[in-house]
């Protein structure tokens, strides 16, 4: 299963010119960075594998894409998460609902990695949370090559790339294969957490993305009215729907640093909008913000 190059658009936001790499439009089931991270598993044969095991949050984009991968390959899919809220169990939605419909078996455990080991055997494939592993490099290198073609086609001077990070895997391998700066920000934990994730994947890699710090700290998955408002502004001004968990944090950090960054910005849209359904309902239900 191969994907065509994703669109590359010229955009403006708040009078700032930038380019947008639309990885959200690659494929409805492998939107954004999951099409890149799971390229290796999609395009190679694994004749002895009958099960894929992974872990993460209950609305993970990777969870949904892995459920599609398992369905396509005819594998059992076991997914371990810390907790599933009662409301979500009673009212499945977003990535959680779609993954269940694809046959995912979800297991709750406060010791996720120990539980993963309970399901792992010689016929199992273990995919780390968010696709944080060396195999992700193959697809991300393809993205890097696409970006080089896009930049040449549009004659972009002094480019730099920005993307928000979860595990940071996409940013890590993009910087490895691109000759210009890759900037990112942490959306989970802090900068030290992000650097630790990189060391787990490529311990000897010297050329690393640059982490942009923010004056405000956001806790992963928590609701912030200013982030929802920013997300809505982005949608209204550009006509593009972004992910509601990672992108508002990313845009907030990028806007904070725009004036100090030299060059032509390229923002990588990594998809993940299927999970917006549950996020919007969370804003409406718990915070009374809409």
Describe what this molecule looks like in 3D.
With 290 residues, the chain is an alpha/beta fold. The protein has two domains: 8-30 and 135-287, Rossmann fold; 36-134, 3-Layer(aba) Sandwich (Rossmann fold). Helix content is 40%, strand content 18%. The chain has helices at residues 33-37, 39-43, 61-73, 86-90, 94-101, 112-118, 137-153, 169-177, 191-201, 225-238, 247-257, 276-287; strands at residues 8-13, 16-22, 51-55, 76-81, 105-108, 124-126, 159-165, 182-186, 210-211, 264-269. The strands form two sheets. Strands 1-2-10-7-8-9 form a six-stranded mixed sheet, sandwiched between helices. It has a four-stranded parallel sheet with strand order 5-4-3-6, sandwiched between helices. The relative contact order is 0.16. The model has no long low-confidence stretch (mean pLDDT 94). The active site is at 60 (nucleophile). Keywords: Pyridoxal phosphate.
Summarize, please.
It contains 12 helices and 10 strands. The chain is α/β, with parallel strands linked by helices. The strands form 2 sheets. It has a 6-stranded mixed sheet, sandwiched between helices. Strands 5-4-3-6 form a 4-stranded parallel sheet, sandwiched between helices.
**How many whole angstroms does the radius of gyration measure?**
18 Å
Topology-level CATH name of the largest domain? Rossmann fold
> Architecture of the largest domain, according to CATH?
3-Layer(aba) Sandwich
The beta-strand count equals 10
Query: Taking all residues together, what is the mean pLDDT?
Result: 94
Shape: globular
Quickly count the domains: 2
Tell me the span between the first and last alpha carbons. Answer: 40 Å
Q: Give helix % range.
A: 40-55%
Overall SS class = alpha/beta
Strand order of the largest sheet: 1-2-10-7-8-9
The number of helical segments is: 12
In terms of DSSP E residues, the strand content is 15-25%
- Biggest sheet statistics: 6 strands, mixed
Taken in chain order, the helices and strands follow as EEHHEHEHHEHEHEHEHEHHEH
- By CATH reckoning, the class of the largest domain would read Alpha Beta
Low-confidence stretches: none
